[in-house]
Amino acid sequence: MIKKLLTHAVATLTLGLACAGAHAQEINFGIIATESTQNLKQNWQPLIDEMNRQTGLKVTAFFAPDYAGIIEGMRFNKVQLGWFGNKSGMEAVDRSNGEVFSKVVNVDGTEGYYSHLIVHRESPIHTLDDVLKNGKSLSFGNGDPNSTSGFLVPGYYVFAKNNIDAKTHFKVMRAANHETNALAVANKQVDVATNNSENMAKLETRFPEKFKDIRIIWTSPLIPSDPIVMRKDLPEATKTKIRNFFLNYAKTNAREKEIMAKMNWSEFKESSNAQLTPIRQLELFSKRNKIESDAALNDTDKKARFAEIDKKLAELK
Fold first, then answer.
1. 211 SS3 class
2. Is the pLDDT of residue 1 over 50?
3. 225 CA to centre of own chain
4. Three-state secondary structure of 130-182
5. 8 A C-beta contact, residue 86 and residue 33
């Protein structure tokens, strides 16, 4: 009788541990809202299916209406792994216990992309100077506040460096994802909007007629390619499976290469939090410019805030 009870107890414990282990292997993969969920799912689901098959993990796509939803999802452990832009990736690292372990490589082998300002092809706006001089008569489609190319980069190079507050510079300003902004420009719903080279390539494929109605009037310096981030507290065995999957994916397999090509990428490459350093510098420079142009601050307050920012900049070098 005792032997039967012990056998039953061991079996129950083993089953419980197996269930716990299976539960620990469930991974939500966060995908930032650069375009419609339908388009994102169409692009990412084949790769996620492959991840499930090759790693043995139960990986599920996780979508949110904005970038913050993915950042907060990782913060509260509703998302354990995700594709981010550099600014949202920085937020995930700083606020959500994340770490960068990989980054995407473009289909042409380059490891970066560009932010753009776009207008309709018939627009009288031809240069950045036209935007800066005529803001009060223009409607502006800004990016998500956590977007690198849609918000941070143009926020610094276009607005902060010219001592302009985008919120007050334009007749109307609204925020949306890249695809929505591009279509709004093509349909003459906004005069000028932010976008990036990656999304423009997707737009040319999905909406070729709309793409023809868009003209680029400003291009940023090169932005590091998108990071893949996972939570630092994942089990080491799980992290190893995830890392190995990404770093070996699409290296030789023709089907995998085809899946990546549909996203305008060729492969994933090893990376770390170090790739976020230029973005951290950019954000600090932007803050410095805003302080410089803030008439409400006296010289003493400005000097103190400059010292704090300059200290952080020095630490990043």
1. helix
2. no
3. 9
4. HHHHCHHHCEEEECCCCCHHHHHHHHHHHHHHHCCCHHHHCCEEEECCHHHHH
5. no
